[in-house]
TrEMBL record:
Domain Enoyl reductase (ER): start-end pairs: 13-365
Protein's name in the database: NAD(P)-dependent alcohol dehydrogenase
Gene3D superfamilies in alphabetical order: Medium-chain alcohol dehydrogenases, catalytic domain (3.90.180.10), NAD(P)-binding Rossmann-like Domain (3.40.50.720)
Keyword presence, Signal: no
Family membership: Belongs to the zinc-containing alcohol dehydrogenase family.
SMART domains reported for this sequence: PKS_ER
MF (Gene Ontology): oxidoreductase activity; zinc ion binding
Organism of this sequence: Lacisediminihabitans profunda
Record flagged with keyword Metal-binding: yes
Cofactor(s) in the UniProt record: Zn(2+)
Domain of life: Bacteria
PANTHER family: GROES-LIKE ZINC-BINDING ALCOHOL DEHYDROGENASE FAMILY PROTEIN, NAD-DEPENDENT ALCOHOL DEHYDROGENASE
């Protein structure tokens, strides 16, 4: 049984602890991946802090990228040496999975936040007991992981794995929401609330779609500056002024064709809807904290043909969208490298703090 090093979450809200653990051999249909890099995403923080209850102790992390090191019995799609990006987990067999929407798999909560294999067991132990080691099917805050081959997406070897890692969740969420759900026509206008990893990925996709006005709204000046550097046409400070009024001014009173709430707070969701023009389409992405309620003016917020979509993982099939995004990165059209800040794996707690404060848009941990 190989010995690995992992960052273990043992207590709610406490710093992760680097520990040596034992990893089982990959089961049938699985591969063992040596992680080269992993992104940090908001869901890791809300799991560490038990806002979404994940069984502890656990190894978190769900934007892993690495190299296949061992192949389990009957695994057929991957070989030792393949470079892979790890996506979220899904059952492959429910109606929504079969329809091509694995982000809405009916087992999403169990398969991702349950942090265990479907049979309730874990591949990781510390010699005393099990450590939950299947967060999003991957638990990528570790030097090695066993994953089912359906969630390991083969990528070209000439692309850097540290830049590819965030394609597995944050970038896929932002890009997929634009490409798969909103589908703006060239010349459309879009407002994106929240200029973090998801919002800025959506901006890159909006640029590729030929949007004209691309308005980013955030409360951090550093992120507004980054938005403009990445091609936003306008950056609106959402902390004091009325963002909806400013968006209407920018669009000559009309409002925007498309809007994304990448924050997940009631007041932002309401502002996102109120910024839409008639027949506008808004999207709430990601995982809001449970229990938040929002009040709407039914004749205004959702009147005049307006629509709203609740989007998980960009409504994407990872085996389709990750290679497409990798191809766009190859041609220079999707500069994900401009979103990331690299940290050595040993500095994971600093990276988590920088993710929470907004100092880093997309922290990526590099394994030794
Ligand atoms: Zn399913
Ligand atoms: Zn995520």
């Amino acid at each position: 049984m190989p010995e690995i090093v992992a960052a273990v979450a043992r207590h709610s809200g406490a710093p992760l602890e680097l520990e040596s653990l034992f990893l089982e051999e990959p089961r049938a249909g699985q591969v063992r991946v040596r992680l080269v890099a992993t992104g940090i995403c908001h869901a890791d923080v809300i799991a560490r802090d038990q806002i979404y209850p994940v069984p502890l102790p656990a190894v978190l992390g769900h934007e892993g990228a690495g190299i296949v090191e061992a192949v389990g019995h009957s695994s057929s799609t991957l070989q030792v040496g393949d470079h892979v990006v790890l996506g979220f987990n899904y059952c492959q067999h429910c109606e929504t999975c079969l329809a091509g929407f694995p982000g809405n798999c009916i087992h999403t909560a169990q398969y991702n936040f349950g942090a265990l294999r479907p049979d309730g067991s874990s591949p990781l132990s510390d010699g005393h007991g099990a450590i939950a080691g299947s967060f999003f099917g991957q638990s990528s805050f570790a030097t090695h992981t066993n994953v089912s081959e359906h969630l390991a997406v083969k990528v070209p070897k000439d692309l850097a794995l540290d830049v590819l890692a965030p394609l597995g969740c944050g970038v896929m969420t932002g890009v997929g929401t634009v490409f798969n759900v909103l589908r703006p026509k060239p010349g459309s206008t879009i407002a994106i609330f929240g200029a973090g990893g998801v919002g800025l990925s959506a901006l890159l996709a909006a640029r590729l779609s030929g949007c004209s006005a691309m308005i980013l709204i955030d409360v951090l000046k550093s992120r507004l500056a980054k938005s403009l550097a990445l091609g936003a046409s306008h950056a609106v400070d959402g902390s004091g002024a009325n963002a909806v009024e400013l968006i209407r001014e920018i669009t000559q009173g009309r409002g925007v064709d498309f809007a994304i709430d990448a924050v997940g707070k009631p007041e932002v969701f309401r502002a996102m809807l109120d910024s839409l023009t008639v027949r506008g389409h808004g999207a709430l992405v990601g995982a809001p904290i449970p229990g938040q309620e929002v009040s709407l003016d039914l004749s205004q917020s959702l009147g005049a043909g307006r629509r709203v979509s609740m989007v998980l993982e960009g409504d994407a099939h990872p085996q389709l969208l990750i290679p497409q995004m990798a191809a766009l990165m190859s041609s220079g059209a999707l500069p994900v490298d401009k979103l990331i800040t690299r940290y050595p794996f040993g500095e994971i707690n600093r990276a988590l703090a920088d993710s929470l404060s907004g100092d880093a848009v997309k922290p990526v941990l590099i394994f030794p």
